[in-house]
Write a structure and sequence with these properties.
With 241 residues, this protein is α/β, with parallel strands linked by helices. The chain has eight helices and seven strands. Helix 6 runs antiparallel to helix 7 (191-202). It starts with 26 loop residues before the first helix and ends with a strand. The protein binds S-adenosylmethionine (SAM). The site of S-adenosylmethionine has 18 residues, from helix 1 and strand 2.
């Protein structure tokens, strides 16, 4: 059945609906996808919710020391590059680390201008610096995980991040499937991106999903903020005060 006609009332699990980007492919294809994803992020103002949440985080009294920020599933690293600019602009000292399971991500991120950012190949839990982690972020990452994996990820972030964590992902709405299909064809984005965009939306979230996932992970709903961000994002933030 065409994706745009599928029932979106329930989140599809990654095993039911695979993305091409998660399958073995050449470095050239993976890198080209990341380049186009950075364009998608720019056009859809995807950095904004994360940067605005970071603004709230640094406004918490007592946040004087340099922040160690980790982006899980960082891909080509455009979010961390946006954070590097944000920190310069705000005069905030940060140390930035991108973690991604696919070794092509670190290679592509370095080629796209590393600028003092550390790139690590490994899964979310493999990076354990002795000084710990202040902030854990992700963008377009959680829809790559099954529900039990997301619960584990939330519980790990809650235990690990000293100051807070922020998930920036897609909002499962039919309108966004149509908009993405039109945009990606018109802009001639990479064939993987044209295929994976609607699949990602089908695997993404509604507010109720995040409520259930946070509860199952043992994080109280009074501790998290779940916010729709037009166009197409649904974000979950946890600020520790
Ligand atoms: C759609 S890309 C998102 C890239 C980037 N964060 C962005 O917003 O454009 C998802 C990334 O998550 C990575 N990934 C998937 N499963 C992972 C895991 N278990 N641990 C770390 N990275 C993972 C993939 O390799 C891929 O680079």
């Amino acid at each position: 059945m065409p994706l745009e006609r599928m029932n979106l009332s329930k989140r599809a699990q990654p095993s039911e609906l695979p993305e091409w980007m998660d399958k073995p492919c050449s470095y050239e294809d993976f890198r080209a996808c990341l380049v186009d994803l950075a364009k998608v992020n720019r056009i859809t103002l995807a950095h904004r919710p994360t940067l605005q949440w970071l603004d709230r985080l640094i406004a918490v009294p007592g946040r004087g020391k340099p922040l160690h920020i980790v982006d899980v599933g960082c891909g080509g690293g455009d979010m961390l590059r946006a954070i590097a600019k944000w920190s310069k602009h705000r005069g905030i000292q940060v140390s930035l680390t991108g973690v991604d399971l696919n070794p092509y991500a670190a290679r592509a991120a370095q080629e796209m201008n590393a600028g003092g950012i550390q790139w690590i190949t490994g899964d979310a839990y493999s990076y354990t610096p002795p000084e710990g982690i202040d902030v854990i972020l992700s963008s377009l990452f959680t829809h790559h995980l099954s529900d039990p994996e997301i619960e584990r990820f939330i519980a790990w972030m809650e235990d690990t991040a000293h100051c807070g964590w922020f998930i920036n992902d897609l909002h499962r709405m039919r309108i966004y499937v149509h908009i993405f299909q039109t945009l990606s064809k018109t802009a001639h984005w990479h064939r993987f991106v044209q295929h994976d965009g609607p699949v990602s939306i089908r695997r993404s979230f509604r507010t109720e999903d995040w409520r259930n996932l946070c509860k199952a992970a043992g994080v109280g709903l009074d501790a998290v903020q779940i916010r729709k961000r037009i166009p197409g994002r649904l974000c979950v933030g946890r600020l520790k005060t």
